[in-house]
Amino acid sequence: MRLTHRISSALLGLAVATGAMTTAAGAAQAATPAAAVERPLANAPSVAGSAAYLMDARSGEVHFSKEADLRRPVASLTKAMTAYTVLEQAKPTDKVTITAEDVEYGSQGGASVAHLRAGDTLTVENLLYGLMLPSGADAAHALARAYGPGVPGFVAEMNDTARKLGMTDTVYVNADGMPYQGGGHSTARDQATLAKATLDDPTLKKITSTRYHAVESTSEHGSYAWKNTNRLLAAPGALGVKTGYTRDAGYTLAFAGERDGNRLVGVILGETDSGRRFQTAQALLDWGHAGNR
Q: For position 109, what pLDDT does the model report?
């Protein structure tokens, strides 16, 4: 009887444990957000890039998702995090003096630059224009150096900021996205989160949505003129956010558009054709604003 009782108790315990596991698995599966499941959309625009994502900035509703959690280098989309991290601790009116180290860093490896001059003292706001419009690696280095303090310390702050924003699949290794030290990685979903946060900041929204910016010379600095690399800004309602390119990352784009008070934010990664990323982004915005999903 004791043996039979023990066997029955063991079988009952196993059944209870199995049922609990099944219930827990079912609950976990039910808790998975619908946005995490990619569904083919018959009428969606064709996207040639390796990954893409389009969401409603207010509700977070996902309109389009292709390999949204695929880890990839994102090139100069990194600079959006640089700008966002700077403004967590600096005021736009604060000033930074450009060093020879900043200029030298920007000139290596074929990086895009803002053509900053050593000895010039510029406001943080103007340096952010130099960072985001012509994608200046020299501006990225100057800001990271000043507000780390030191570039390594600043990169650590970028990664802390990414965690606070919920960007769980993102690692930054520098402030400009060039392939130094491996270049880091992120995902289309994470970069869309960053793009939304960038546009939620009034200063960054203004900067990233500006097509041209000129800085007149003063006793503290020479004159500068910068043009935004984002060709989408010619379209009505287009906002920032950032373009990028390296050989490993391909052509990348964080973009947004606003119509009738509705803002959509998107990301394209791993595109092989520079012009096509803008065409695809515009097609996604048109499609999303038309209510397709």
A: 82
**How is 28-45 classified by DSSP, letter by letter?**
HHHHS-GGGS----TTSP
Mapped onto helix, strand or coil, the DSSP state of residue 184 is coil
Residue 18: count of CB within 10 angstroms of its CB: 10
From 66, 79, 196, 242, active-site residue: 79
- Which residue of the set 50, 65, 112, 135 is catalytic? 135
∠ CA(173), CA(166), CA(266), 5° rounding?
85
Alpha-carbon span 103 to 106, nearest angstrom: 5
Residues of the chain whose pLDDT is less than 50?
A: 1-40
User: According to the model, what pLDDT value does residue 182 have?
Assistant: 82
112 is an active site residue: no
Q: Is 135 a catalytic residue?
A: yes
Q: Residues 104-107: contacts with CB within 8 Å, 24+ apart? A: 105/137, 105/138, 105/141, 106/136, 106/137, 106/138, 106/139, 106/140, 106/141, 107/138
Residue 92 is classified by DSSP as: T
Q: Is 107 an active-site residue?
A: no
User: How far is it, in rounded angstroms, from Cα 274 to Cα 75?
Assistant: 13
The predicted pLDDT at position 293 comes to 55
- The two tokens of residue 211 are 């097509």
User: Per the structure block, which two tokens stand in for 82?
Assistant: 């640089």
What is the three-class DSSP state of 48?
coil
For residue 8, what pLDDT is reported? 41
Whole-number pLDDT of residue 34: 39
Cα(141)–Cα(163) distance, rounded to whole angstroms? 22
